Fold these 2 entries.
Entry 1:
Amino acid sequence: YALYIILMVLGVQLIQCPDVISMPSEFFRDKRWYVLAGIFFLNIGIGISLLSNLVRLSTDKGLDLNTAILIVALAGLANTIGRLLYSTLSDYIGRFDMLRILLWTQLISLMCIIIWGIWIIPIIMIISIYGGVFAIMPSLMKELYGSTVSYSQVLIMWGFAGLICPILFSYMGMGLLIVMSVCTIMMSMSLKLESSN
C-alpha cells in the first residue's frame, strides 16, 4: 500500500493539464475544504468497506452464496441509481440539505443493521448513498468555491478511503462504520453553518 501511494503521488506530478485552473493558495487554508475531504473520505470508506466485504457479511448473516451474489449485484445497481437520483434531487433540495439527508439516512441504515439485524434494504440504501455523495460532491464544491475549484483535489480521498477503510473494517467491524457515520454528520453540520455565513 505504501508503494502504491508513493507511485500514485509521483505519477500525478507528471501529469500536465494546461486547461486546469490552478488552485489559489487560500483554498488549502480554508477549513471547509478539509471538512469536505473528511466527509468524502468517511462516506466513501463506509461504502467501500461494505462493498468489499458484502459476500462474506451476507453469508455470515446466514444467507446462501447465490443470495449474497444477488445482493452484490443489487448494491452495484443501487450505487448507479444513487448517483443519478440524489444528484438530481440535490438540484431541487439544495446540495447541503441533500448531503445532510443522505448522511442521516446512512446512520439510520447502519443502526438498522446493528440493532435490529435488518440486512438487505439498509445495505442497498447505504450503497446508494455512497454513490449519491460521490455524485453531488462536485456540485457542492462548485457552490462553495465557484469555478476555481478542482474536484480532483477532493477525489484523491476516494483512493485513500479504498486503501485504508476496508482494512480497518476487517479488524473493527460495523462499530467502526457507525463512528465514521456519526463523524460525517457532525462535519456536515459544521459545513452547513459555515456555508450560510
Entry 2:
Amino acid sequence: MTSVAIGLFSAPQSALSAAEKLNSAGFTTAELLSPIPLEGVEAALGEKPNTIKRFTLFGGLFGACFGFILAAGTAVLYLHPTGGRPIITLPPFFIIAYEMTILFGILATVLGFFISARLPALKERVYVPEVGVDKFALTVRCKNAPELSRVQTLMREAGAETVRTDEETS
C-alpha cells in the first residue's frame, strides 16, 4: 500500500519552489496540480519525455509501406493490358503511398496522444478539489513511512499551508 502526500499552496511560486526541492531531493513522482497554466513547471519537475512524435513517425512509415504494397499488390493481382509498359510504375503508386502516410501518421498521432495522456484513466488519480478554485497542490507517491515524513517536512519547509496524506491501494 502506498501513501500520497498532498501539499496545498496558495502561491504558485511556493508550489514551484517545493517541487524543485522535492525533485532535487530525489522524489521523481511529484505532480503539480494547478488551476491556471504555470511557467517553469518543466524546470521544477524535470521535463517529461515526449513520445508522440515517435508514434507519428512509425505510423507514417507503416502507412507508406502499406500504401505502396496495396497499390502494387492490386496491380499484380488484377492485371490489365499495359502495352509493354511495366505493371508496377512508381509515380502513381507514390501518390497512394503518400496519402496512406498522412492517414496512418494522423491515426498513430491520435493514438499516441491518448496513450501519452493516460486516457482512459485505468488507475485512479489523486483528486484535490481545492485546486479547482484557488489552490496549488503538489502530490508525491511514497512507498514507506520514513519517505512520507521526509516529503511532508520538505513541503512544510517550502511553505505549504496544509499537508495531508491519502492512502492508495496498488
